[in-house]
Design brief:
This protein is mainly α. It is built from 20 helices and four strands. The longest helix is centred in the first third of the chain and has 34 residues, at about 120-155.
Length: about 475
């Protein structure tokens, strides 16, 4: 049986790499098929076979993970295969899912009750606040916190669709680019050595310019349609005193930020080797604190707050299952990208490299952004981070514009489609539950292409 498996798996390699580890220059493109398979499954199955996907997406993720893991164990010794997968699961996946999970739990415990009236200026203020909050509580947390107050504020209005389209643009995506807390791609960069405030320093001007530009467009659109509304019906809204339920989670959110800062600035010099993965003491402490904060949030949050948010575990369970498969499948892909011109992705390397050997930052921006639009922006960021050499010190200094291009492309262009970022899915689901008609997959792209592509062209021209 082992001979049969070996013969079948040999198609993945032109020659065996050394037992010391995976050698990206010796891996063929066949190794990228599971990664492409799981990303295409995520992109297409919800559209083509939604019922099957809803019930079996976890099994699909495990299938693609096994398509990577089984050949690794057949073609390499157990130590090499285990170490390669352990780096993905223990070094990347577990910190990632713990981080996303604690933000999901804490943000899901804050419920805002109010009777705001959704005038153009009120909507602009709420969108701006959401974009700023995304940097400290994540795009998922900010989107889940503010989507329901925004729905309540606009529930008496006839024209609402455009408001939630811009909500996806600004709160669920673009706003979360200033800290590793904002969007999972930036957290993966943080895990690889990018300083916590590097993105704040380098992306603040591009981000605030983009946010204000889009808010100006939104204000014009909303002002025009607001004048078409039945003004008497708009103002027929029940008065509810402003109240924040589950306020303890605001304090817990600050604890999350503090835990992140401790792990970024404190270098203990102590590490533990777990299945070949060196885990620094400060990283372990950060993740333990995240878990404790999540448990405290679940125990201390009033039931009325989570009920008001219609809190459920389904979104984070879906993210956990799918990203387990993604992080397993991306192992050989990252090694091939790290190999640069000597790897199977040499043509891709050539596209993002100028004739003099320097990086073509414009290509990094558009290619990272294009893939983030249709795939998930976290693995896209990792792929292009490695394509740029994967050295955080070089990328933060000599190649700072390259890292800016990768970061902005991955975070900003997740807003181009419904499937570009997880909060997009969640927002659409909640809005449609309230009976608000949203555009189809391609209808949304008419909005995003018409508004965002010109915006990103200007961004590319002035900041990259």
């Amino acid at each position: 049986m082992k001979k049969i498996l070996t013969a079948a798996a040999l198609a993945f390699l032109p020659g065996l790499a050394s037992a010391a580890g995976l050698n990206g220059s010796e891996l063929s493109l066949w190794w990228a098929l599971p990664f492409a398979g799981i990303l295409l499954s995520i992109a297409l199955c919800p559209l083509i076979v939604p019922n099957f996907w809803h019930h079996h997406f976890g099994k699909v993720a495990v299938f693609w993970a096994l398509c990577t893991a089984v050949p690794l164990f057949v073609l390499y010794d157990a130590s090499t295969a285990t170490s390669a997968l352990a780096h993905a699961v223990i070094g990347d996946y577990l910190p990632f899912i713990i981080f996303v999970g604690v933000l999901f739990v804490v943000a899901g415990g804050i419920h805002i009750r109010s009777s705001f009236l959704g005038t153009p200026i009120v909507n602009v203020i709420m969108l701006f606040i959401g974009a700023m909050l995304a940097n400290v509580m994540g795009t998922t947390g900010a989107a889940m916190l503010l989507i329901r107050p925004l729905l309540e504020a606009n529930k008496t209005r006839k024209y609402q669709m455009h408001t939630f389209i811009f909500f996806i643009f600004l709160v669920a995506n673009i706003g979360g680019c200033l800290t590793p807390l904002g969007d999972p791609p930036l957290f993966m960069g943080f895990l690889r050595g990018v300083h916590f405030f590097w993105t704040t320093e380098h992306l603040f001007i591009p981000m605030i310019t983009t946010v204000l530009f889009l808010l100006a467009i939104y204000f014009v659109i909303d002002t025009v349609v607001y004048k078409k509304e039945d003004q008497q019906a708009i103002h027929n809204i029940e008065k509810v005193p402003f109240k924040i339920e589950g306020g303890i989670n605001i304090l817990l959110l600050l604890c999350v930020v503090g835990s992140m800062l401790i792990s970024g600035f404190w270098k203990s010099g102590i590490s533990f080797n777990i299945l070949g993965v060196d885990m620094a003491l400060e990283a372990i402490l950060r993740d333990v604190l995240f878990v404790i904060i999540g448990i405290v949030s679940l125990a201390a949050t009033p039931k009325v707050a989570r009920d008001g948010n219609q809190f459920s575990w389904d979104p984070i369970l879906e993210v956990g299952k799918l990203f387990f498969g993604i992080f397993c499948c991306i192992v050989p892909v990252l090694e091939m990208l790290r190999a640069g011109h000597s790897g199977a992705f040499a043509p891709l390397v050539a596209m993002v490299t100028n004739a003099d050997g320097t990086f073509n930052n414009h290509m990094f921006f558009w290619m990272a952004g294009s893939l983030s639009s249709f795939l998930d922006n976290t693995p896209t960021y990792l792929a292009f981070f490695n394509l740029a050499g994967g050295d955080p010190q070089l990328l933060m200094n000599e190649d700072a514009h390259t890292l800016m291009a990768i970061s902005m492309g991955s975070v900003f262009m997740g807003s181009m489609t419904y499937i570009g970022n997880a909060p997009n899915f969640m927002t659409i689901s909640i809005v449609q539950e309230r009976g608000i008609k949203m555009p189809s997959f391609f209808g949304y792209m008419i909005w995003s292409c018409g508004i965002l592509i010109p915006t990103f062209l200007l961004l590319n021209q002035f900041f990259i």
